[in-house]
Amino acid sequence: MKVFAHRGASGLYPENTRSAILAALELGVDGIEIDLQSTLDGFAVIHDTWLDRTTNGRGKVNKLTLAEVQQYDAGNGQTVPSIEEVFQWVNNQTLLNLELKHTFALDKLVKLIEQQVQAGLLTRENLLISSFDHHQLKWLKQQLPWVKIGALTGSIPLGYCEFAERLNAYSVHVDKNFINCEYVADAKTRNLKVFAYTVDKQEDIDDMLALGIDGIFTNYPSKAQSFLLQK
Ligand code: G3P
Ligand code: MG
């Protein structure tokens, strides 16, 4: 079962920051998940629509420029990263899962990704884009047919994974509290990978192993790796 660092190794380092991302890389995780919000002029790697919880700033991210967002402390003297910085740090060493939050100007994101790929800073195989907004995913897949799409849900849809197959998704990302055998079986018949979030406790990791899913998002990748090694 694959281990993805959720917001980087965010259990031990400030979430979605350089230190959390570098710590995850150091552990040799199978992937790193980060969250993306739009700013006035681009994108910022931050989970919330507001600066307040994870930085010493106040205000809405989409009402500020990236430079304004980066004036604030996102933990231990670090700035909120830009997406380009993250591509540079990760440097194709592992899969990067960009989760689109309140992200608009997707055409800008497509251009940025294409530039990174052309410049050799990002390998296509190492990118997975996910979102709870399936309309955005559909549009992205039309623009970048090669891109791996991760369809996020916080629940089990009536048609199980039918929506994800329609999106031509690579994976379904589902809340660990809702996942069940029927859902996993349905995903397998549609050739979709199943990843669950956010799985930190050993009992929960055991449950995910029993379900036979493909991977977990965890805030404590080091603990998850050690636990899985003992299995
Ligand atoms: O991408 C999985 C998970 O991160 C989705 O929820 O709120 O932690 O971004 P959230
Ligand atoms: Mg996320």
What's the structural blueprint in terms of helices and strands?
Elements: E1 2-6, H1 18-27, E2 31-38, E3 43-45, H2 66-69, H3 83-90, E4 95-100, H4 106-118, E5 127-131, H5 134-143, E6 148-153, H6 162-166, E7 171-175, H7 181-189, E8 193-197, H8 202-211, E9 215-218, H9 221-229
Parallel strand pairs: 1-2, 1-9, 2-4, 4-5, 5-6, 6-7, 7-8, 8-9
Antiparallel strand pairs: 2-3
Magnesium ion binds next to β2.
Protein name: Glycerophosphodiester phosphodiesterase family protein
InterPro entries: GP_PDE_dom (IPR030395), PLC-like_Pdiesterase_TIM-brl (IPR017946)
Domain GP-PDE: 1-228
Describe what this molecule looks like in 3D:
- This protein is α/β, with parallel strands linked by helices and 231 residues long.
- It has one domain (2-229): Phosphatidylinositol (PI) phosphodiesterase (TIM Barrel, Alpha-Beta Barrel), CATH 3.20.20.190.
- It contains 9 helices and 9 strands.
- It is globular, with a radius of gyration of 17 Å.
- The mean pLDDT is 97.
- It binds SN-glycerol-3-phosphate (G3P) and magnesium ion.
- Residues 6, 33, 35, 47, 99, 130, 152, 173, 197-198, 217 line the site of SN-glycerol-3-phosphate.
